[in-house]
Amino acid sequence: MKHLIMIFSLLPGMIHAQTFIHPGLLQSREDLQRMKTAVAAKQEPIYAGYQVFIQDPASREGYKMQGPMAMVGRNPTVGQTTYDNDANAAYQHAIMWAITGQKSYADTAIRIINAWSATLKSITGRDAVLMAGLGPFKMVNAAEIIRYTNAGWLEADIQQTEKHFREVIYPVLKDFAPFANGNWDAAAIKTVMGIGIFCNDRFIYERALQYYVNGSGNGRLTHYVINETGQVQETGRDQAHAQLGIALLSDCCEMAWHQGLDLYGYANNRLLKGFEYTAKYNLNNDVPFIHELDRTGKYEHFKPSEQSRGDLRAVYEQIYNHYVNRMGLQAPFTKQAAEKIRPEGPGKPGADHPGYGTLLYTRLPGSAIVHNPKAAPGGIIPTGSNQQITLSWIATTGAETYSVKRALNSGGPYTTIATRITAANYTDKQVKPGVVYYYTLTATNAKGESAKAWEVSIAAGLPNAWKQQAIGAAATTDKAEYVGNGFSVAALGNGLGDTRDTCFVIYRLLQGDGTITMRINPEPGSQFTSMGLMMREALTANAVHAALMLYPGKTNTVEAPSWHVRLVSRAKTGAVNTVDTIGHALVEPAVTYGRLTGFYWLRLQRKGSTFTGFGSYDGNNWTLIGSVQLTLKKDLLVAIPVASGMPNSTMVQIDNVSVTTN
Length: 662
Prior knowledge:
Layout: H1 29-40, H2 46-55, E1 71-73, H3 80-100, H4 103-119, E2 122-124, H5 128-147, H6 155-173, H7 182-198, H8 202-214, H9 221-224, H10 239-258, H11 266-282, E3 292-293, E4 300-301, H12 316-326, H13 332-341, E5 346-347, E6 353-355, H14 357-361, E7 378-384, E8 389-394, E9 401-407, E10 415-421, E11 425-428, E12 436-445, E13 448-449, E14 456-459, E15 467-471, E16 479-482, E17 486-491, E18 495-496, E19 501-511, E20 514-520, E21 530-536, E22 545-553, E23 562-570, E24 578-585, E25 591-592, E26 595-596, E27 600-607, E28 610-616, E29 622-629, E30 635-643, E31 650-661
Parallel strand pairs: 1-2
Antiparallel strand pairs: 3-4, 5-6, 7-8, 8-11, 9-10, 9-12, 12-13, 12-14, 15-19, 16-17, 17-31, 18-19, 19-30, 20-27, 20-31, 21-22, 21-30, 22-23, 23-24, 25-26, 27-28, 28-29
Helix pairs in contact: 1-3, 3-4, 3-5, 4-5, 4-6, 5-6, 5-7, 6-7, 7-8, 7-10, 10-11, 11-13, 12-13
Organism: Niastella koreensis
Protein name: Fibronectin type-III domain-containing protein
Domain Fibronectin type-III: 373-463
């Protein structure tokens, strides 16, 4: 069973005392001072890295801004190069300001940030999420350095920039990119995380942390570095993207490290294994490879790709310096790769990656610095059953032990239920089925106790009257969880078949006439996913039913299914399913470029022998999908069926579920 991401178990109204460390994205205050001191002393190899850095036009004094523009886009491309060039310049001028103290560099960075923040209103195109995850990451890093190094940036401009990141960039990225290869997801994660830190917004920051460790897409760490050997989801695609994807994830780790979280060490140093595997293969060594179908069901690989093999990207110094020089671990192939291209140059093309790791990340062995020895834990992932609730989290860099606190209401009052926990996980066995619990954590060391972690919620099993079960050949490891305001569902199965259905359902009894309503959240874990509402006589695979299904219709391109609602029924046990009505293809805001990027509501109603389906974009204005006449039993099972439509499981989030009787 692949765990589910429960982003909507985060409670955005919560207020916590935990504060962010600034500057605290890719560079901390100590990092900036380390570079400044090393360059002044011409310390190698940092000075050699600096010499490469200053040759880049984006680092040179007198850079002429190429923008701003009110709209940029990718696929179709509108102003992408313009934005990326300016983002590179803003970040690299901020670094030059920190190293040299020369105010003209800061002034240029400020002009670029201010101009784009005041002007850019939208990022468009089929690949908008990828564009928003790359160049803007450079821009938010520039803003972070300038804001916290006394560069003379006006407070009004800082607030305008915060607003820009929240209202223009973040909305494009907030649901990440579960429909794509993992580097898209990883780019979105790191930029969401950076925005959260810069804007001092714990909710946004935690959203990124939770997706990194527990997301539905290929960019989740354990979905991208798919096993303990270090094989990467894009290893079979080409080596340029495989290297980029793990590098984007490493940026998340560096930011989290500065905030006191050991994301580098998550899942037994899984990221390091990905780098070692990738470096080894690109240094012309053999590596093990297993046949792999990705999380979307669209990308299947049978062997490592030779494309771009040996073309080492400027991504290895950061990882070498963390795992070897900070942590004292071994990384022989990463070390060889870093040495081969030292000093590292730019992370091109465009604004794909910062690069310049020799300058930015070289440090002495044993130089681990715990910036915040009392940092709160982050990225809490709860999983629940009727008998217990298990919590796991990202370890802090300075914790000796953890304490778990629980409440029956959001915000408390909390009761401490466990102390002196040394591992980054805990199982609460004192729970009651169907009850929603709210959890937080603190970390403790010799300097005291941290602030509380961001609160998460989950029920012990499903709410009263609701049950769950796989139908047909669907795997028994499928699972639904209730997180306080909705359901998270992991499911396999092919959906509603001709004479047999294979899906996973959440269900309850409906006596007589009634209506079930729900809202589907963006985005499902696979574009082959079908989901909907059902009234069914039994849980056998060939049972009589009426179902209202959101279905990804086939088109000429697998990347862009035609999402539409179908009313489907089986009039007799074992009979062939009948598609009674096919509704119109969904449009914006629910669907953009064939992706379920917005909310959509479904409603299924029974009145005697008439079963009627409705759809809605907002839950207020409803469109009739169709009706069917069926002779069914008085008492039925009302259900929410989900199927992945592929060999891997899908993940779906559903809320605003209601069942009413007439």
